């Protein structure tokens, strides 16, 4: 059986979890406590870079979330989550990589804001919001009359961006100026895979407490 080593709060982990659910695959979910468990020998044996997620499939260890998504699509192609049309495929890939390389690094500055923690570097937060606005405008332009990025059916782009963009309003980033993106978010949040993988209030409160303790 497939095994996914993950942390619920991690968008990198969640994109894989969502994809496994959307593909209807059987898998075992193994929570990794990121308070030190990722540095233990047992975990380092499957990923020497001590990062999550890790997918284990019949003794084959796959690290890096985007590589895991490609592995799942290649080995378990039904239902397909990558379009064949070159233009649509480019849209999916652009959304994936812009999320990973631009949106997530900028959004990390807003994570304390999302949790309601005081303080924070006002200048860094302002710059992060500027970068995020560029990304959101770009994504808005990629959406058309179809409900997903580059497809009538859910794609890997939706799994990647969809585990980041919907929480931005909680960090003070409005989606009001992006009607297509806002509608896309509402559609994803109604899906069982998104609802099942949403971090609980208890998990968020525990993370908030740990972060508050470090900040003090």
TrEMBL record:
Report whether Transferase shows up as a keyword of the record. Answer: yes
Q: Highest taxon of the source? A: Bacteria
- Fetch the Pfam families from UniProt: GST_C, GST_N_3
Entry's SUPFAM superfamilies?
Answer: GST C-terminal domain-like, Thioredoxin-like
Where is the GST N-terminal domain positioned along the sequence?
1-80
* Keywords from the UniProt entry: Transferase
The GST C-terminal domain, residue ranges: 85-215
Q: Does the keyword Transferase apply?
A: yes
Q: Name one GO molecular function term.
A: transferase activity
Kindly provide the name given to this protein in its UniProt entry: Glutathione S-transferase domain protein
Q: Which organism is it from?
A: Gloeothece verrucosa (strain PCC 7822) (Cyanothece sp. (strain PCC 7822))
């Amino acid at each position: 059986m497939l095994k996914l080593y993950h942390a619920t709060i991690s968008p990198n982990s969640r994109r894989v979890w969502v994809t496994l659910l959307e593909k209807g695959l059987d898998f075992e979910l193994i929570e990794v406590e990121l308070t030190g468990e990722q540095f233990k020998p047992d975990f380092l044996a499957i990923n020497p870079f001590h990062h999550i997620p890790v997918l284990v499939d019949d003794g084959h260890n796959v690290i890096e979330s985007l590589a895991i998504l490609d592995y799942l699509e290649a080995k378990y192609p039904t239902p397909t989550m990558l379009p064949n049309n070159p233009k649509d495929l480019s849209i999916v890939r652009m959304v994936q990589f812009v999320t990973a390389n631009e949106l997530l690094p900028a959004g990390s500055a807003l994570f304390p804001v999302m949790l309601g923690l005081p303080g924070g570097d006002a200048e860094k937060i302002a710059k992060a919001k500027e970068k995020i606005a560029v990304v959101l405008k770009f994504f808005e332009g990629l959406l058309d009359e179809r409900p997903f990025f580059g497809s009538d059916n859910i794609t890997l782009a939706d799994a990647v961006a969809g585990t980041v963009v919907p929480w931005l309003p909680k960090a003070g980033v409005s989606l009001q100026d992006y009607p297509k993106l806002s509608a896309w978010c509402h559609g994803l949040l109604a899906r069982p895979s998104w609802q099942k993988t949403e971090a609980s209030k208890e998990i968020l409160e525990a993370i908030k407490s740990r972060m508050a303790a470090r900040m003090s």
